[in-house]
Amino acid sequence: MTIRILIADDQAMVRGGLRMILEDQPDFEVVAEAVDGVDAIEAARRLRPDVCLVDIRMPRLDGIAVTRALAPLKVIVVTTFDLDEYVHGALRAGAAGFLLKDAGPTLLVEAVRAAHAGDALISPSITVRLLRHFHPAGEPQSNPLSERETEVVQAVARGRTNQEIAAELFISLSTVKSHLSGIQAKLGARNRTEIAVWAWENRVVPGGS
């Protein structure tokens, strides 16, 4: 099965470099390149790629606005700068990943595969470090989840993959996926990143703010 990818970046050299890395994979196909946010949205809506790689700083519309506009398409936000404000904005917009441009070819490929599979969206270290900064606006919302669903949410908020969650909770991978579907429905979350944000904002994670 081919994973169809869109690359949006205003620098031709960056687009070319990303394309070269991605198309080295036998099951990856770059179906479009875009030079700014408006072009990215138009191309993504027309071609419906499986994963979009979107630069955070682009003319006309930035990567966060593009991510928000393209939901529920899977968007990985790419940036040169590891700034909390960028990551927070990307996560709140529903990004399916956050990647630094110097992350290297291996991590780029892993990020695309993970986003496509709905699995590990951003590296656990970045997930935990940045999600800890989400502070509740007021009192935490009431928790509508079962005890087992809460355990799954806590694991997601710590950056665990589906396989890791299954191993930690001694349940099957299909059961993890079933729980995640139910959790998304209960929370109105578009993806697991939004589940993690909800968990940190509502102090569901032990030791969270």
Question: What report would you give on this structure?
Answer:
By secondary structure, the chain is an alpha/beta fold. The protein is built from ten helices and five strands, in the order βαβαβαβαβαααααα. It has helices spanning 12-22, 37-47, 63-70, 84-92, 105-117, 124-131, 147-157, 162-169, 173-187, 192-201; strands at 3-8, 28-34, 51-55, 74-79, 97-100. A five-stranded parallel β-sheet has the order 2-1-3-4-5, sandwiched between helices. The chain is globular. Residues 4-116 form the Response regulatory domain. Keywords: DNA-binding, Phosphoprotein, Transcription, Transcription regulation.
Write a brief structural summary.
With about 210 residues, this protein is α/β, with parallel strands linked by helices.
